[in-house]
Write a structure and sequence with these properties.
The chain is α/β, with parallel strands linked by helices and 317 residues long. Helices cover 39% and strands 14% of the residues.
């Protein structure tokens, strides 16, 4: 396959960056052989976050990505299994086909393509507790193996919440993770234990990359302690530079008065980009550093840092 057009595009992108006075991204070599990777995610919004920029990152590297989604907001291993159990009991059951807007069962999606990878994950707020994974994760893994025997099954290690998330308060000590560090440590241990006990084919270290970037001395997020959250006035927001999580925003409910809301769980643009870089390296076995794709309006230097962080997380499991 001739990839000269792709190489020419890379040269044009580099020239354009230099012309605009932007620092060039790390050296990026056009690939001699493109790859097509097919991945099905069995997860929730955290998988959706991870997939946001992955197609564009893959395309920029000269590869093709085919994505299938069995994702439901806030969905746990238990809920995914319960939907599958409902389908196996009665294929006509609406509860058995909740995916694709209520049109597909997990069996349908597994049969839709010759998947190279299938990812599984626990819901974030239960991810620290390995006991909540069983028996559902094992049952799902066994079913996936039966329906897609050639697919590699990966555990998607989700990330800890933002350091100023409401979960992280002293009152929660002993009940659930009460610091970001503790949540990261417990979640990481749970996923690695799961992968070992079930004999999974690997781990996508999203949580490792997010924690590395979040705690970096230069690029890590630091809460704005000068902003008065209790008495904030619309539309003012606290500083949230380099936040990998969605964070504070103003929302109107039913057209009413705006209220200040915190989402310390889901990924921001920066977080989604970092996650896409991690997934790219795992799925394609390729180095993301120097990839020319960055989201519109994104700081190129920050993009370089996030690419390097993703590479570090994948290289040091």
């Amino acid at each position: 396959m001739n990839h000269r057009p792709h190489h020419h595009t890379q040269s044009l992108l580099l020239g354009l960056r230099l012309l605009l006075g932007l620092p060039p991204l790390l050296a990026f070599t056009a690939h001699l052989e493109s790859k097509t990777v097919r991945v099905l995610t069995v997860g929730n919004s955290f998988a959706d976050n991870s997939l946001t920029y992955l197609p564009a990152i893959s395309e920029a590297a000269g590869h093709k990505l085919v994505v299938g989604k069995a994702n439901l907001g806030g969905c746990s291993f238990e809920r995914h299994w319960n939907h599958l159990a409902a389908y196996l009991k009665n294929p006509e059951s609406k509860d058995g086909s909740p995916y694709s807007g209520g049109k597909s069962s997990l069996k349908d999606l597994l049969a839709k393509d010759q998947w190279d990878f299938v990812t599984i994950q626990q819901v974030s707020w239960r991810s620290h507790d390995l006991a909540t994974y069983y028996p559902f994760a094992r049952d799902l893994k066994n079913y996936i193996e039966q329906q897609a025997p050639n697919a590699r099954i990966l555990a998607h290690q989700i990330w800890a919440y933002r350091v100023d998330d409401p979960r992280f308060v002293p009152e929660n000590e002993g009940k659930e993770p009460h610091t970001q560090q503790l949540m990261y440590t417990q979640v990481r241990q749970a996923y690695h234990t799961l992968a070992k006990e079930l004999g999974l084919d690997g781990i996508i270290p999203s949580g490792d990359a997010m924690f590395l970037a979040d705690t970096d001395l230069k690029w890590g997020y630091k809460p704005d302690t000068a902003f008065d959250i209790e008495n904030g006035t619309y539309p003012a927001l606290p500083g949230q530079g380099h936040s990998l999580h969605a964070g504070w925003s103003w929302r109107k409910k039913d057209g009413g008065t705006p209220t200040l809301n915190m989402d310390g769980h889901h990924a921001s643009t920066a977080g989604k980009y970092l996650l896409g870089c991690v997934w790219f390296e795992v799925l394609f076995g390729d180095d993301v550093t120097g990839n020319p794709y960055i989201p519109r309006g994104f700081d190129p230097c920050y993009a370089q840092f996030l690419q390097a962080t993703a590479h570090k997380a994948v290289a040091n499991p």
